[in-house]
Write a structure and sequence with these properties.
seven-stranded mixed β-sheet; 7 strands; alpha/beta; about 375 residues
Length: about 375
């Protein structure tokens, strides 16, 4: 990977990090948090007990995300990574003509989000799904005629997932090797750590974690199997890395934990198709807004937005397109936007965030 950014749980210079500053996950097959505005059903709420983490937080680049949806057509914004609903609440407060359909695979996050979104009534709905199910979620919950004015992705892992030790995301607390964002998913971190061949494990660490010592770490893990806890894995990684390297760049296990988490949840595997589907769902003038936190995510986002922008055009630069490529989006600005100095100082976990925004074009006008 090129230059590790991250905020939900990546290889960032500030060590173990997360993106939103709060979000967790939980149980079963609960679906919507209220109806479409036309139906007028009230949004159900889920009582929060004293064991539920506090989801009140300022999400990363909140103001920039709200600004990105300024002027889009009235309709629905699909928050494809709802979490604690921090961005969604801000969008609903700022833009009365917009409603939100929130998607998340973590039932505990959905419970917290529903509680925060209840005051918006029929303007807020939720559905439990992974974000690569965005097309089906919109069709099932809003119908084929829904006006999708925006889609938001806030990628990575959230603070509560790190902070609740039993989830197994953190190298700082002993816990079972889990790392599932969806607690009903079958593959766990233990399956990756104990089941992958040494070469495959090294590949995962190299590709998803940009881990320089991937081969050494994979060899140490295989030799120590079975590895059953996060603390065991963290110790193995630390001991496999040369002593001088351990003293640089934060905790020595952070890249390994990032890589295993990404593999467990297929995060990079499902992202390209989800970006493409999100663009297809947008009405002309609608916008896709993506926050990425490490280079692998951001590279995929940049690639898919560029493909949608040029439509695979093969014409020479600076000449009119005559190859028949369909240009689906235009970037709102070239390059990624980063958090301001004040936000980075107040929230070091925002340091690695990269925000990209593109607007849907009318293919008939651009053809």
């Amino acid at each position: 990977m090129e230059g590790p950014y991250s905020a939900r749980f990546p290889s960032s210079p500030v060590g173990e990090t997360s993106r939103r500053a709060t979000v967790i996950r939980g149980a079963a097959d609960d679906r919507a948090c209220g109806p479409s505005p036309a139906q007028g059903r009230p949004a159900p709420t889920t009582p929060m007990d004293e064991t539920t983490p506090d989801f009140a937080h300022v999400p990363v680049m909140r103001d920039e995300v709200v600004e990105a949806f300024e002027g889009v057509p009235a309709g629905w914004v699909v928050d494809a990574t709802l979490g604690g609903a921090g961005h969604s609440v801000a969008v609903l407060d700022a833009h009365p003509a917009l409603s939100v359909l929130g998607i998340d695979q973590d039932p505990t996050a959905l419970a917290a989000a529903r509680s925060r979104l209840a005051r918006f009534g029929p303007r807020a709905r939720t559905v439990r799904a992974r974000f690569d199910r965005i097309r089906g979620a919109v069709l099932d919950e809003l119908g084929a005629d829904a006006v999708v004015s925006g889609v938001l992705f806030d990628l990575g892992v959230s603070s509560p997932q790190l902070d609740v030790a039993d989830r197994g995301f953190s190298y700082r607390s002993p816990a079972p090797l889990d790392m599932r964002m969806d607690p009903d998913a079958t593959r766990t971190a233990a399956d990756v750590v104990n089941g992958y061949a040494e070469a495959d494990l090294a590949r995962v660490l190299r590709q998803h974690g940009d881990e320089r010592y991937a081969s050494r770490i994979a060899k140490a893990i295989v030799a120590a199997r079975p590895v059953t806890t996060t603390s065991e894995l963290a110790d193995l990684v630390r001991d496999a890395i040369p002593a001088p390297a351990r003293r640089r760049g934060g905790h020595p296990a952070k890249r390994t934990f990032q890589a295993v988490r990404i593999e467990v949840n297929a995060e990079l595997e499902i992202l390209p198709g989800a970006i493409d589907d999100a663009i297809d769902l947008l009405v002309p003038g609608g916008r896709i807004v993506v926050l990425a936190y490490h280079s692998g995510e951001d590279r995929i986002v940049k690639e898919r937005l560029r493909q949608a922008e040029n439509g695979g055009c093969t014409c020479p630069p600076n000449l009119p397109c005559v190859c028949g490529a369909v240009h689906l989006v235009r970037p709102i600005r070239r390059g990624a936007r980063k958090p301001g100095d004040a936000e980075r100082e107040a929230n070091p976990r925002a340091e690695s965030a990269r925000l990209r925004v593109a607007e849907r074009l009318d293919p008939e006008v651009t053809a």
